[in-house]
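W.,

You were right to be curious about this one. When I first looked at the sequence I had no strong expectations either way, so I just let the prediction run and decided to look at it fresh. Below is the sequence, 345 residues in total, followed by the output.
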Amino acid sequence: MNGSSLHRIRLQRGTALAVRVGAEIRPDEVIGLRREPLAPILVPVARPLRRKPDEIAEAMRVRPGSRVRAGEVLARINGHEVAAPQTGLVLGVSRGDGSILLAPLGPEEPVIGHVRGRVHAIEENALVVEVPAATVTGVGGSGDAVHGELVVGVHNPEDELRAAAIDVGATGKILVGGSRASAEALTRARAMGVAGIVLGGVLDKELRDFEAIQRRRREAGGMTGSFGLLLLEGFGKVGIDPQLFSWFRAHAGRMASLFGADGLLYIYDAGSAPTRRPLPRVGDRIVAHRRPFQGRGGVVVALLEDLHATSSGIPTSMALVRFEDGRLAPVPLANIEATVAPDGR
């Protein structure tokens, strides 16, 4: 997309922000401090106040969601009061037994925004940042928010990102792969300190195997650093749109921010990424998004007259497409989109 976009950094309850509206922030900047909630405890209220459990509402001095300090008054009435035994988050009030559910807070941890831009607004549970970057939207992803230098790890958009191609030179970088990466390649990337990976697709089994390996490492206490994964086209072995892949190559070396869970990639100081539109015309460059040509690019040679039956037997409008490998094939119009470069071609 052109210009800037607004990005919301979700904040946990109780995060103490260190930035204000209008401030310029960097991807590696600490924007606040947070303390993770621990196992909650019950703080008796009704008995110390000499009230029935259903009568404590008028005595409450805090609301659910409030962050309180150790010793801060939680409830007070007629000279009687109850103070917080520890610093924590008020999770709720029980009128059944007249108690407050309080989650003590662990040690302070820094909050990294992972984006560059200007703070546009501060909302209840989010920091809104105006990000001056080109935006690439995927179909999904997983992992943490990360940032790093963009590098391209394969020669062609349909190549597989192999484990042997990932070395210490990729540490701290966001690596653009091709059509897929095995669980072995993803695990090696994580071990080498790669910040994130961008792929056309990934096999369901490979992703499940990788996540199972990460889960075992977390349980064993062996996980360090953050890692994000962005899928651009879908699940399975799917090549990256050739025009988009060329755009990535042209912007290698730029700083990027990847939000796998949101399916977003920002690339700073970059021109607009190629876009797509439905109903391609003759001469348009296209990308297919259904099998057997999913992720492959080509050019529309002709629009076929009348309706033609697909492999499922359903009649539909078809286009004749010459793919990058020279293959000429009829493809349903509903299964392809025109890819439009920033200059409109």
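Here's what jumped out at me. Residues 168 and 192 are 6 Å apart (CA to CA). And, maybe more interesting for your project: The first strand starts at residue 5 and ends at 10.

Coffee later to discuss?

I.
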